[in-house]
């Protein structure tokens, strides 16, 4: 299913359909890619961080606030296949600039929202930015970096999602306390617009589109579908942990609100370190296909630690670290696998299909977890997460076997 190609990316319009040959871009491009990933998701993190202010000022219910996650990830999942084809057709530079502009408009609308309708519409618009994020950034990595650097750069840019969560949860939340939540959101919108201008100045023009070629050695359609299924199951579990971990700490373990929130911060930091480290490892020949299943298996242990925290509360902390180190990191490794194996002209589409699965899991996972917890308690809820991670590990096994055979 997987045949790794790390050293045959055509210059300018090859496998990634990128912007230039892989001559080794400077650190500024890596920072820009990381920022793009952060801005693609920051609107959802901001709504979560500013939720109490939004509920109070806009008069919306907690149910409507929860629907913002469904609107964002649902839109991203539905539009990802279209976004992938768009990136392959018009080029990653144009799409990256468009992504940042869409994020700026979405944030500006959130800051101006008078009520629930505009808020949900703004988050749905941000879903299009999410859909463009992985296809555009992955193709730029193929174009701008040599094969031996792509794994590490992919991990760094994927860590941008966690960086966006940190910025929303701390600096922008502190700013909201001083200038109001609308001022904080508009500040983020202005930063996204500035990043779009930076991208337009730094990145060279997109070359002519390259065809996929009828005999490309690459991820087969079946392997792309398997990675998408793996990402869906992974996303279900990760989203459930992200959404309910702090509430679990406060309601069942007796943690103070600050300590409960720190659980999410610990998970985020572990996710950043894990994505960078595991993606660097995945960049080595013969490793990328092996790691998704192993990381998902490690995530099973993480979910079981959270379940055991009902008996021994201190286990919640290593459980949070393990979710970040294994489950969150596995998504970045999936992107490395796509980058290593994408045929000419299809890197955007393959990235988008795998991302669509991940977004679908984020849209579906928390409601299922919440319904089970309401009916049966947190113990069965964490066991459901463990089962989702175990299923993801099983789905990834053929990727491991094929990669070992062809390394």
UniProtKB/TrEMBL annotation:
Occurrences of domain Major facilitator superfamily (MFS) profile (ranges): 29-404
Gene3D superfamilies assigned to the protein according to its UniProt record, in alphabetical order: MFS general substrate transporter like domains (1.20.1250.20)
Source species: Streptomyces kronopolitis
Organism phylogeny: Bacteria, Bacillati, Actinomycetota, Actinomycetes, Kitasatosporales
Which domain of life does this protein belong to? Bacteria
Q: Where in the cell is it found?
A: Cell membrane
Keyword vocabulary terms for this entry: Cell membrane, Membrane, Transmembrane, Transmembrane helix
**Pfam families for this protein:** MFS_1
This protein's name: Major facilitator superfamily protein
Give the compositionally biased regions (Basic and acidic residues).
1-10
